[in-house]
Amino acid sequence: MDGRFGSGPSKVRPEALQALVRAANTLLGTSHRRDPVRDVVGEIRSGLTELFALPDTYEVLLGNGGAAFFWDAACFGLIHEQSQHWVFGEFSSKFAAAVRECPHLKDPVLSQAQPGDCPSFEPSDCDAYALTHNETSTGVSMSWQRGGDGLFLVDATSAAGGVFVDPLQFDVYYFSPQKCFAAEAGLWVALCSPFALDRIASLRTRWTPPSLSLGIALDESRRNQTYNTPSVATLLLLRDSVRWLNSLGGLAAAASRSRESSDAIYAWASASSFARPFVTDPTNRSPVVATIDFDEPVDAARVCQILRQNGIVDLEPYRKLARNQLRIGVYPAVDRSDVDKLLRAIDFVVETLGS
Ligand SMILES: *Cc1c(COP(=O)(O)O)cnc(C)c1O
Question: What stretch of H or E contains 130?
């Protein structure tokens, strides 16, 4: 059994590690500005275009730093004056906080909901809308339909690759590789529509730290490079995941792997005498990060601790939520049979503690 159920970093497929070892002697320790590594970046870009069925007017950008860096880059290169944010957990609130501190932007408009819920989607008169496809801290997924005149900036860090999306519903769909893509962290990837590319071009005259410049990132990405040196190992792991997800039959097939795993968890919790899904509205329940509350006599932290001692790790809830809860990451790389073993292990530990 593979006991890695983290919500990020998440399980890295053993096959991806073997592919990394095979490529290591020729690629690790070589220049990212030469063809062998640039070809890896090129394959990531074309493989993502295929996986997300992007229209050919869309472009795949990438750079160093991860999704949190991308928030800062968006403050310079995507938000013109004012953005609206759907805030329903830690990650969505952090982007809104970054915008609020930004001296050249107006205070953001907030649409908020309590953790475990999702705000309703009503776009106001802003030039950018900040959505979070999957709020990793609470296990809530949001859906939306385009409306309003702003750019749709979708934080897809824990959704991309494991939840279906229609590219016509976003302008920027950005993520880091250590969640559904089962790779190492430190990189951001952004799938950009022509509307987003126009905005990046029109904001090039705004002073921007070069490392956060999306204009520079666009130029470099078109050459299959990044502005500064990337981790070649991260690129190789990401390339392998993109290949693997495409080989499953594309995004819908990848998403159904996660959906089957999370459905099994929610069904188990709903039938359990001591557990229940934290997210009460079933349509908001995340297909990739399942949050499960325990009833009081059962101590979730103690259960996590015992499972951890037995090699089943990273089921702790998001620290700031401070609930009697397990949070279970079931990205596509997690095997359904391991989910079944996990649920049996939880039942066994709870039964043993109670007797
Ligand atoms: C993990 C996560 C981030 C932060 O990603 P980093 O790679 O650590 O910058 C941002 N948004 C969401 C929704 C996440 O799950």
Answer: strand 128-132
